[in-house]
Amino acid sequence: MKLLNRTVAGFLIALMLLFVGDAVGSVRDISAKRECAICHIMWLNEFQQEDVTPLVAYDPKPVVDTGKQDIVSTERVCFSCHDGFIMDSRFAWVRKKYFHPVGVVPTEKVNIPTREGRRIFPLNNEGKIYCGTCHSAHGVSWKQKESPVFLRSKNIESSLCLACHLERSTGPKEGNHPVYQPIQKIEKELVDFGAKFGVKDGQATVICQSCHRVHGARDEKALVAPNENSALCGHCHIDRYAKDRDEAVAMATHPVNIKSDKVKIADEIVEVGGKVGTDGEIICQTCHAPHYAKYDATILVKRNVKSALCKTCHSDKKMVANTKHDLSLAKGDLENIREQTVAEGGTCSACHVPHGGNGLKMWARPLKKGEDQVAELCYSCHSDGHVAAKKQVGKETHPIGKKLSNLGNDIELSGYSESGKAMKGGGRVSCPSCHNPHQWDPNNANKRSKPGDPSDASNRFLRVANNKVDSPLCLKCHSDKAAVIGTKHDGANIEGAMTGNGVCGTCHRVHKGKGPRMWAQAPKEGVDPISSLCQSCHDKKGLGKEKLVGNESHPVDVAINKLGIKISKGKWETSSEKSQASEALHSLPLFDKKGKRTIQEGASVACATCHDPHRWSAAQNAKEKDPLVEGDRESSFLRIANVGDGELCANCHVDKMPIVKSKHNIGKFSPETENAFDLTAESNYVCGNCHVPHNAKGKRLWARSLDEKYVVTEAMCRSCHQKTGVAKDKLVGDHSHPLGVDTRNLAGKSEPTLPLYNARGEKKAAIERGRVSCPSCHNPHQWDPADAASTAGVEMDVEGDASNSFLRKPAAPNGELCV
User: pLDDT digits over 450-482, tens only?
Assistant: First the structure.
């Protein structure tokens, strides 16, 4: 309506002039410029009469201070049609502030082309850009529907833009975003914003109008879409624009849209054009500039020669240069997954690429899939066929992938999540929990180490130097093992032990161990994996040659469930009906056939079941660590003090506990009696009067002298029940139940239910020629077969009868035992 009103007004003025100039009303010829007169009123023939004076004065100059060429080229005139009357361009009018600049003098970066000495795109009288610089109302048919009319030059795939801005299309080498390059995917949202794309070989390509919109843009720089935190970049670079750290890991690209608490964006980056997000986050434009970036820098704000850009922000990683992890020193022609050599890309490029990495940490090397992907990063070099093949961890090495929370301590080092994020005191242990791959010497960031230089526990890319006496790195996690310091298991107190690797290094090698538990000594063959470790030192040729277990020692590699122990919810329980345990059993460690600690049914006993090799005394507040002091039942690296009622023994042998209430508790009635090791019953624990766990005198860990003329089981009983023994008042006499009898000679077909033994004291079934012996009828650990809790047997003046007397079954009143 505005246009109609203005047009009607023009014609009325023309008619008024006509009537004033020609009163007789003669008919005039129709003006040939009436179509142009829609905008150019003064072009009408009627306005060209020299003898006519218009009623309204007209000055063909701008009526507003626009800086434009003429009123015809003002925005008001353009929008008199483009406000919806002829074409609806109100979307551009609303976001007028994001137009292509008008009313400004072109900068030196803009090169307006000329033809025959005249600018193809004219400026106004003040040398400024105006609407008519690019547009002409006199439409031209370009004979190509892709290009709009009313432009001074055809615009196919942004060719009009490039006529002036050619220097912005020169590609990454010249510091500009590439144009006419294929893109992965066109987002509908971007098209809805007004983005346009070129076509090459049937695939969409980037052109100027993919990012910029001359009219109706939505952000500064005439950007087609909002670009807060480089969001516009993300519309095309969907494989690089992560919303957070976890998504960046999944994309194997450098994180964006995060504000790191470890890495500060360097001021130098901002000074050379890098930008940060609304809250200081790292964004695409922190490192990249789409135009006028550094020459030969892949549109980076700073050239990354020798990883210079990486080191600007990651200054805490730059000390990797000139160390054994600087692969340019070892193999400069080594290529990463981009086929880029270390010499070309710099130190960082050997392991990391900013985009399109291979897994975690933007990894630049081929990776295998494993349980711990963080460790696999290290293995990509430290494995067969790779650059660090000579530096492998070996089969027996520090475990990875285990939860740090399993240690039950306050952990100072970091574990790692599945996405590779460091978690102090949490996550799972991995190679970088102990190693800092960027710093050779934990105490000197400037110390260098070229390939071939010597190494020890004070460097080796460790996070904490581990060469001190107390092995500080190990104790960062294994603080509960610190009690070993100063004990007989401390290498400083062992003749011949290596002491250069700290207290832990005496027994353990973190990598390339010789047995389970990263064992530093050669395990002894013929025993279970855990016991073999102990016996590698406690051997005639070992470091512990003064402390041997002897030929008759507590059995190992036997299943605990044979003793009536079962495991429920990780706790030990007993199924023995004779157990009189007043408290729950201690859940001592058990092991499988590979030496792995387990709580499964059928797990076996090993040396470490009873012994804690890292703690000298089981007492809570024990301070005695003098290596010259001999151990006793309360120390000797026992897990439970084995004093009094033999708590350690009874923890497994729960069915033997009733002995403390019987006459076989020698300390109660004959405290001065000594066993074969000169230990009095008074100073010993109840089990120790008859048994010792190591270096026993015979089978059954016997602690008393044995008469070899008797079979083992009978000799054990006779070591007390003899004329010179502690039980000299309880002899069997010359006429006693025969021993050594083969029960198969007995009448009847049924097999005996009482235990039978061979000459070596081993229990045997009747079919295996098991023979009668003293313990066939007697249970030496329980006075009353019908009542395990009976205390009658401990009273010395109480005589036994056929219903008790340590019998396995009562012989009276119905002769059950005999039958």
Answer: 988 999 999 999 999 998 888 999 999 999 999
- Average pLDDT over the chain reads 87
In whole angstroms, what is the distance from residue 449 CA to residue 726 CA? 72
What residue has token string 């009978």?
714
Which residue's structure tokens are 């995060």?
Answer: 258
Helix residue spans in 383-453 (DSSP H): 431-434
Residue 65 has pLDDT above 70, yes or no: no
The long-range contacts involving 684-687, CB below 8 angstroms and separated by at least 24 positions, are: 684/633, 685/633, 685/642, 685/643, 685/644, 685/645, 685/646, 685/649, 686/644, 686/645, 686/646, 686/659, 686/660, 687/642, 687/646, 687/649, 687/650, 687/656, 687/659
Give me the mean pLDDT over the 614-623 stretch: 77
Beta strands in 179-250 (DSSP E): 198-200, 203-205
Task: Determine the residue type at 577.
Answer: E
**Rounded Cα distance, 434 and 477, in Å:** 10
pLDDT (mean) for 493-497: 84
Beta strands in 489-587 (DSSP E): 565-568, 571-574
pLDDT digits (tens, 9 = 90+) for 367-426: 998 889 999 999 999 999 999 999 999 999 999 999 999 898 889 899 999 888 899 989
Give yes or no for a contact between 58 and 52, defined as CB atoms under 8 angstroms apart: no
Count of residues for the chain?
819
Q: What per-residue confidence (pLDDT) applies to 17?
A: 38
Question: Which three-class secondary structure state does DSSP give residue 344?
Answer: helix
Q: What are phi and psi of 335, to 5 degrees?
A: -100, 145
* Dihedral sign, Cα of residue 634, residue 635, residue 636, residue 638: positive
Q: Are 320 and 350 in contact (CB under 8 A)?
A: no
Q: What is the reported pTM?
A: 0.80
* Spatial separation of the C-alpha atoms in residues 392 and 406, rounded to whole Å: 26
CA 547 to chain CA centroid, nearest Å: 43
Give how far Cα 59 sits from Cα of 42, 49, 56, 71, Å: 10, 16, 10, 10
